[in-house]
Amino acid sequence: MINLKEYFLINISPNHVRVENLKTHEFREKGLEFGNKRLLITDMNVPESTLRQLIAELSSPSFIRLSRTIIINPFHPHILAFSEVEKMAFRDMAEHLGARIVLFKFGETVTGRQLNISSLRSQTEV
Fold it and tell me: Can you list the positions of beta strands (E) in the chain?
């Protein structure tokens, strides 16, 4: 089977992660302690391995994957804005998960049903 495009929404909070396949609207959630009062994620290895597992569960079986888009929706009650360094860390993590396109949705927590795949770039930040 050839799978041309995959779209995933990753909601990250300090103690919870939710990954949703935007085409099927299937999702997986996991509660883990990722961050603290100052940082959303303190160690990138634990969330990355958790996300790798959740994305594998939601991916369709494929021999060829040409494009994977990941939208990261970070939320921390004590952080109003994320620095460029934090965004770069999230972007690197998404690229390690196979993303060719990484987008951000800051502010409120969103679900896949609130996003339109055809106009993702207008609804998110690069």
Answer: 2-13, 16-21, 27-30, 64-74, 101-104
Q: Going by C-beta distance under 8 Å and a sequence separation of 6 or more, which residues neighbour residue 107?
A: none
For 16-58, write each residue's pLDDT tens digit: 899 999 989 999 999 887 777 777 877 788 888 999 999 999 9
Look up residue 91 and give its two tokens. Answer: 């972007």
Tokens of residue 62, six digits = 């494929």
Tell me how far apart the alpha carbons of residues 21 and 60 are, in angstroms, rounded to a whole number: 10
The angle subtended at Cα 55 by Cα 53 and Cα 57, nearest 5°, is 70
Sign of the Cα torsion 24, 12, 126, 119 reads positive
